[in-house]
Each structure stands twice: as C-alpha cells, then as structure tokens.
Amino acid sequence: MTLENKFGLTNSADLAREEEFVSKKRAVELFENSVLDSLPAGKFSTLQAIHKYLFEDIYDFAGELRTVNIAKGNFRFAPLLYLQAALESIDKMPQASFDEIIEKYVEMNIAHPFREGNGRSTRIWLDHILKNEIGKVIDWSKVDKEDYLLAMERSPIKDVEIKVLLKCALTDETDSREIYMKGIDHSYYYEGYTTFKTEEL
Ligand SMILES: Nc1ncnc2c1ncn2[C@@H]1O[C@H](COP(=O)(O)OP(=O)(O)O)[C@@H](O)[C@H]1O
Ligand SMILES: [Mg+2]
C-alpha cells in the first residue's frame, strides 16, 4: 500500500524516489534559510516545523499528528490514545547533557508522531538540540546504518547501544551542511509501517 501523496503516485518505488528527492531539496533549504535558529531546541513544536518543512510538498499530513496506530517490525509505537500526553511529557524532559538528550530522542522515537518521515525529521531535531545544548552534532557518516537501526530497535528496552554509537560520532563541526545532510541519508525507504486498531492490543 502506497501512502496518499500530492503527486498522485501509486507505486511505492516511484514515491520513495520522489520523496527522497523533494525532502532532500527541502532539507537543504531548511539549512540555508537558518529556519531552526529561531526555534526552541527540544520542543515538539520544533519537530513539527521540521517535518512540515521537509514533507509539505508531498504529504497532506506534513507536520500533523498521525491518526492511526503504527508498528515497525515487532515494535508498536505510542498508541494514539497516549500520543498527546507522551509529547507533552517529552517536551519537559531535561536536555543538559549528552545522555539526557539521547534519552529524549529515544522517547520521541517511541512516540513516532507522524505517519511517515519520523526518522529524518527527528534526527534533524536531535542535531538541533545537541548543537544548542552542548555545541556538537552527530556526523552521521560515522554511524553505520545497520548498527543504527539495530540500536534504535533495541532503544525502547535499553538505550546504552544508541548512546555509545552516537557518542563516537559527535563532532564540533556544527555548521557544516555536508554533515547535516548525512542525517537525511540515514533512511530505509522501502520499509513501511503496519497499522493496527487499538482493540488488537
Ligand atoms: N523496530 C523499531 N523500533 C524502534 N524504532 C525504529 C524501529 N524501526 C525503525 N525505527 C526508527 O524509525 C525510523 C524510521 O521512521 P520513518 O517514519 O520511516 O522515517 P523515515 O521515513 O524518515 O526513515 C528509523 O530511522 C529508526 O530511527
Ligand atoms: Mg520511512
């Protein structure tokens, strides 16, 4: 099943290609226009602005909360019923140290507020927090994609792997467009979500 999109594409490979092209173009603009400079680090409203910016040319739901329950692999992200409350408590989580910031990132990933594009938008959100709070960002070219996905799958249970992996990739080069764009590349375009009803829980 292909997500409804503004291009009217019905083939998932075509949509993946178009989505990658358009969202990368928008990510460059987000960087070049310094959009994030005026937004608060670590707030859901900022993640929402990032998601809207990246995906508004493609999806009607850009920047909007998902309206279905979703799962990836064996993991069910926050049930719709608790999503709003989860986002409010994540907003209040501390973000003074690297560990606190990653813990916040892990919780935001569990919330998975959008129907699609959570990975790309939340990694930009993470780098924005790191840059503002500790003057560093992640050089995603130093993070093996497979290790990253395994660590993220594991993170709701134990966050030590994702912390170690990302700590090793920290860099002071917070203003490099190349390093920033590497985070957008870290996606698996062809893996989709399964949706389910709350009664199935
Ligand atoms: N089984 C899982 N458990 C927890 N998090 C996962 C799992 N699978 C993927 N993720 C996270 O979700 C992201 C993918 O979310 P998605 O909404 O498809 O974003 P994008 O389309 O930008 O890649 C991955 O980058 C990873 O951070
Ligand atoms: Mg995806």
Q: Could you explain how this protein is built, in words?
A:
This protein has helices spanning 12-32, 44-55, 80-91, 98-111, 118-134, 145-154, 160-167, 177-185; strands at 69-72, 75-76, 137-138, 170-171, 194-196. It has 201 residues and is mainly alpha-helical. The chain has a single domain (12-188), classed as Fido-like domain (Fic-like fold, Orthogonal Bundle), CATH 1.10.3290. A hairpin with a 2-residue loop joins strand 1 and strand 2. The radius of gyration is 16 Å and the shape is globular. The site of adenosine-5'-diphosphate has 12 residues, from helix 5 and helix 6.
Attribute tags:
201 residues; mainly alpha; Fic-like fold; 3-stranded antiparallel sheet; globular; binds adenosine-5'-diphosphate
Q: For the terminal residues, how far apart are their CA atoms?
A: 22 Å
Order of helices and strands: HHEEHHHEHHEHE
Query: What structural category characterises the helix and strand content?
Result: mainly alpha
- The total of helices stands at 8
What value does the Rg take, in angstroms? Answer: 16 Å
Major beta sheet, strand line-up: 2-1-5
List the uncertain runs. none
Helical amount: 40-55%
Q: Could you say what the CATH topology is called? A: Fic-like fold
Going by CATH, the architecture would be Orthogonal Bundle
